[in-house]
Amino acid sequence: MGARVRKLVSAVVLFGATAGGVAWFLTKPEPWPAAHWEGLGEPDLANGERVFWAGGCTSCHAAPKTEGDARLVLSGGLPLKSPFGTFHVPNISPDESAGIGSWTLAEFGTAMTRGAGRNGEHLYPSFPYGSYARLTSKDVNDLWGFLKTLPKSTNVAPPHDLRFPYNIRLVLGGWKLLFFTDKPRVTVDTGNPKLARGQYLVEGPGHCGECHTPRNTLGGFEADRWLAGAPNPEGEGRIPNITPGSKSIGAWSESDIVTYLETGFTPDFDSVGGSMVEVQKNLARLPAGDREAIAAYLKAVPARE
């Protein structure tokens, strides 16, 4: 009997180890190969700044309540409360110790578009790499070049304060397996350059779906309700539906949307409020053609009630 029990225990251990190995293989971080970032040349800093404002980097990474040029000091520290616990936004200034100044382009690009840290760890999707996965290699290279021109900060953000089991990064591999994709969220006429640009901006650097799309209990997008509105991640009220099926915004014309993104005023002469204030200020810095592209895409997505 003892020998049979030992064989059974050995078989269970072997099965567990094999299952664990298979699970790790399926969910391990997947950085880009180094060759993916070769041959991009010198960054286009003007385009890098354009990507910077489209991505709203200051909204999360600047110190809270800063104004003017101080917004360009990406010192981190902002707490982001969620049902899983509190995330603390990191320092992404060019400081070599507290920030990401010692990172390579490959490490930065892998974090942005694959959600993996420089040490091979999974990053939490509070950092919207699920949207940034759509970024082109050129835009990543240009953004990286622009970030390196910004002021350094020695601020060290606190570690995340998450509940079990969300504080175990290995769990994120399973989350990515279920929800992470770099594919388009909806089908639009990509033969239309304006629509294609709008889709890229909204689904990629603009990461609009991160707030405007509802999520399931595991934090993944409800794919069939893209941009249909969702609970406010900051805890109060709701983020509105911005599809053509919205009872309010759905009636706006493309020019209404463009004016709102540029000035912050609605067709009814109301003004932007809440967390959208920061977003609107960032988008107002983009070329007019980009705001027009965003508006065209928002009018073309499937209507959701």
Automatic annotation (TrEMBL):
<feature type="domain" description="Cytochrome c">
    <location>
        <begin position="43"/>
        <end position="151"/>
    </location>
</feature>
<protein>
    <submittedName>
        <fullName>Mono/diheme cytochrome c family protein</fullName>
    </submittedName>
</protein>
<dbReference type="InterPro" id="IPR009056">
    <property type="entry name" value="Cyt_c-like_dom"/>
</dbReference>
<dbReference type="Pfam" id="PF00034">
    <property type="entry name" value="Cytochrom_C"/>
</dbReference>
<dbReference type="InterPro" id="IPR051459">
    <property type="entry name" value="Cytochrome_c-type_DH"/>
</dbReference>
<dbReference type="InterPro" id="IPR036909">
    <property type="entry name" value="Cyt_c-like_dom_sf"/>
</dbReference>
<keyword id="KW-0408">Iron</keyword>
<dbReference type="GO" id="GO:0009055">
    <property type="term" value="F:electron transfer activity"/>
</dbReference>
<dbReference type="GO" id="GO:0020037">
    <property type="term" value="F:heme binding"/>
</dbReference>
<keyword id="KW-0479">Metal-binding</keyword>
<dbReference type="GO" id="GO:0046872">
    <property type="term" value="F:metal ion binding"/>
</dbReference>
<feature type="domain" description="Cytochrome c">
    <location>
        <begin position="193"/>
        <end position="302"/>
    </location>
</feature>
<keyword id="KW-0349">Heme</keyword>
